[in-house]
Amino acid sequence: MASKHHVLIVGAGTGGLMLAMLLERASISYEVFEKASEVKPLGSAIVITSLMQVFEQLGMKEDILAMSKPFGALHIRDETMSLKGSFFTRAPYNFDNKERYGDYPTVLARPDLIELLLARVPAYKIHYNKRVVTTVQDENKVLIQCHDGSEHNGTILVGADGAYSTIRHNMYKGLQKAGTLPSADMEPLSYDYDCVVGITKPLDLESYAVFLETFCEFEVVLGKEIPFTMVPFGGQGANMAILSAVELANLLYDTTSVTQDETTHIFEEYYETRHTISRISVEQSNQNGALIHKRGFLGDIARYLFLNWVPTWLIKMHADQFNVYRPQVSFLPFVKLGGSFKSRTSKPSRRMQDGSH
């Protein structure tokens, strides 16, 4: 029996579109609400890690490979452009990433990924100019009210609307009113880095031969008198959003009841699966960002030790944390996980196993 849920997805970014595409493949009812008048594929480069098996299941692996390059190296320079050191991501400290995990980390432009996902979601299921203002829920349904006065009902509401999420803001107001919001979540959002994103006109590849190289390499320049700028480290937010979409779609596919108890159970399972891995990603992203960009004597010492003295086993341990669990879409045919490292993966859908799909 198919799922009876109707999912309201707020936000047509990477996570929202990925979830929509998965629900489309799972034949689960959904709608996407986007506050802009159109999806503008903007953003910086992202590095895909632990995800290629999902794109292979979805028949998108060749598209991803065609629009991306393996992440080759990260070169760190000071303000005089003197090279401080390099980290070669495809083969860090004498072990090969592809041999161990099946693929190199892959760099692609976020706009290309957005367009790829957008092409796989029926246009009539995305509603534009729908800025959500309020949310209301009871035991049976959730309702969103938009700034144009329209109202929309569903059984599950997914906030995929970014760091300053209206959905999360409304949820926090309810939790705070009930006295159940943790004190740490009452603090305003802070930021650690400035991010500058620029868009150029198309460039002549003959004049910029670097774009024709096999691997993609990044240069990071350390600031001196002014605050440094950076791209959010490795685009891990996009990776985490896609992995979260996979896990939620897997759980919804096996669910037929829309009772509050069953829905609560879904999100308890979701939390159990995603929380630890997401926390590790956030912590490592913060550590890596500080390690690469921290200025001053301590920053120089930390970078020197990292680039010259970190043992191979420690690098492997950190890389293994990202690859210890490589999920797959539970309701699609599984693919073989590449590499010598033995990762865990998702369990096949219960409906697929008992033939009720």
UniProtKB/TrEMBL annotation:
PANTHER family: FAD-BINDING DOMAIN-CONTAINING PROTEIN-RELATED (PTHR47356:SF2), FAD-DEPENDENT MONOOXYGENASE ASQG-RELATED (PTHR47356)
Family: Belongs to the paxM FAD-dependent monooxygenase family.
Protein name, entry field: FAD-binding domain-containing protein
The keyword Flavoprotein appears for this protein: yes
Pfam families recorded: FAD_binding_3
Gene Ontology molecular-function annotations: FAD binding; monooxygenase activity
Domain FAD-binding: start-end pairs: 6-172
Annotated source species: Mortierella alpina
Organism classification: Eukaryota, Fungi, Fungi incertae sedis, Mucoromycota, Mortierellomycotina
InterPro entries registered for this protein in UniProt: FAD-bd, FAD/NAD-bd_sf, FAD_mOase_fung
Keywords from the UniProt entry: FAD, Flavoprotein, Oxidoreductase
